[in-house]
Amino acid sequence: MALRLQQINLDCADVAAQSAFWSAALDLPVDPSDGNAFMRTINAAGESLPRLMFLAVPESKTVKNRMHLDLVSEDRIAEVARLESLGAERVRDYAEYGFVWTVLQDPEGNEFCVADGHGSPAQP
Q1: pTM for this prediction
Q2: How many domains does the chain have?
Q3: Any domain includes 31
Q4: pLDDT (tens digit, 9 = 90+) per residue, 8-59?
Q5: 12 CB contacts (<8 Å, ≥6 apart)?
Q6: Taking a C-beta distance cutoff of 8 angstroms, is the pair 43, 88 a contact?
Q7: Is 85 a member of any domain?
């Protein structure tokens, strides 16, 4: 029996806002048939990527994420600017080990990274 990644769940306070941010960030639709005030998903079943499910929880984020999303772009600088315009906050830029990436936080403070798709040691 083999396992298959079905979805990634993200706890949040505002399901509608978080699903809207990540839908715009990843250019993936919010599933109109799968959601309510307590949960929503983006990236409908059948897509090649796992779905992201946003679940309402009463507690707020208090420490660094133990798991985060790593994204890649051929134009990292433009993508980071676009994500900031959607409500993300830049935490820090890195250029180490031959890679360049930016750590950001989504509107609820969850960390994620955007790496340079070229894999080149360009300046952050």
Answers
A1: 0.85
A2: 2
A3: yes
A4: 999 999 999 999 999 999 988 898 877 788 898 897 656 677 889 999 999 8
A5: 18, 54, 55, 56, 57, 108, 110
A6: no
A7: yes
